Amino acid sequence: MIDSKILDKLKAEVSNIENIVIIPHLNPDGDAMGSSLGLKNVLMKMGKEAQVVTPSGFPKFLSWMKGADDVIIFEEDKKKAEDRIKEANALIFVDFNSLKRISDLSTAVSESTALKVMIDHHPYPEEIADIMISVPQSSSTCELVYQVIGKCGWEEFVNSDAAECFYTGIMTDTGSLSYNSSNPDTYRIVANLLEKNIEKDKIHELVFHSNSFHRMKLLGHVLGEKMFLLPEQQAAFLWLDKQELEDFSFQPGDTEGFVNYPLGIEGINISAFFMEKDGKIKCSFRSRGDFPVNQFSELNFNGGGHRNAAGGESQLNMEQTIEKFKSEIEKFYKQYKEDRNND
Ligand code: 5GP
Ligand code: MN
Q1: Could you tell me if 271 and 285 are in contact, meaning their C-beta atoms sit under 8 angstroms apart?
Q2: Residue 119 clears pLDDT 90, i.e. is over it
Q3: In the chain, is it the N or the C terminus that has fewer CB atoms within a 10 Å radius of its CB?
Q4: Nearest-atom index, ligand 1, CA of 303
């Protein structure tokens, strides 16, 4: 599935390069941080200088990963991030495939003359790198990065620290192997990672069972007061404004996974979550079955992602964003139903 010529090129280039910066997408999740830090740990073992630069902060429940304390966060230290990117001989982009996904960090990246590599599993990649490894069938970027490492002959450099990072991303992007995991390769990779002596139970504890009291209260609030159904579209949506987030002492990552809850309702196949952030509305979409939330998001909310998990944003206020969502989902759903009936 991964073109062997591309891998040969990657191998040849990396052997000559010492100074590498790894960049994940804005608001990095388990897969973005897992693939960044996993790859960093492997490259360091190979004797390279490898630095992770994130466009924005990452959730506390990922801060235990080896190398997390050394990450440069662009939003918090622009100069340091820009200088580090200038020095690099190679930039590796993980878990995104359009420069829009790294927001303002894209200026420094576009100005860099370093070799650019992309490793990603989102569909419809843009030509953002010299070496493009795009496999939308992969469960996660962590799975893909691990496969690339194996195919390049670098498996011996995957120690338990790196394996823990890769395991985390596979777990978070597949909902602990519930979705995106129908490919047996994913299980083989998980088995390989377990053989690296990782502490699997500890990882689940740290990632899934380390909620703050405030996050649990916020979850109770959003499900109790802020969830609405659109039965005709088999859809549901949730929303939170800035004031509510402040009231519940919001920390990055606190709303992770909220969008999945409505899909637990019988007969609901589409879910949306809207959250006010930095003067915009961040949108998250999920679906079950073949309803393409990535196309819906691209069309209406300047976003994208996977068929069943996508995101986007809105410059309208919350009320207008919800009105837009309601009217657009009605149209899109009608078309989707008609297309299916014609098949
Ligand atoms: P989430 O809802 O967890 O933020 O994102 C779900 C999926 O959609 C992820 O695969 C993520 O990379 C993608 N995604 C989230 N926000 C955006 C966005 O603004 N633009 C695009 N193209 N993809 C997004
Ligand atoms: Mn991912």
Answers
A1: yes
A2: yes
A3: C
A4: 20
143 vs 139: CA distance, rounded Å:
7
Where exactly are the structural domains of the chain?
Answer: 4-208, 214-342
Helix (H) or strand (E) holding 132: strand 131-134
Q: What is the pLDDT of residue 174?
A: 96
Q: Is the dihedral of CA 211, 61, 140, 271 positive or negative?
A: positive
> 4-208, what's its fold?
inorganic pyrophosphatase (n-terminal core) (3.90.1640)
Q: Whose CA is nearest to atom 14 of ligand 1?
A: 311
Which residue do the tokens 């207008």 mark? Answer: 320
Instruction: Say yes or no: CB of residue 284 within 6 Å of ligand 1.
Output: yes
Second-level CATH architecture of 214-342 = Roll (3.10)
| pLDDT tops 90 at residue 1 | no
First to last CA, the chain: 29
* Mean pLDDT of the region 190-199: 97
For residue 86, pLDDT beyond 90 = yes
Q: Are the folds of 4-208 and 214-342 the same?
A: no
Q: Report pLDDT for 148.
A: 98
pLDDT level of residue 195 (50, 70, 90 thresholds): very high
Tell me, using a 6 A CB cutoff, whether residue 92 lines ligand 1.
no
The closest of 85, 127, 105 to 25, measured between CA atoms, is 105
The mean per-residue pLDDT over the stretch 267-287 comes to 97
DSSP H helical segments within 209-258, as ranges?
213-225, 242-247
Phi, psi of 304, deg, nearest 5: 170, -160
Cα 157 to Cα 149: distance, rounded to the nearest angstrom = 9
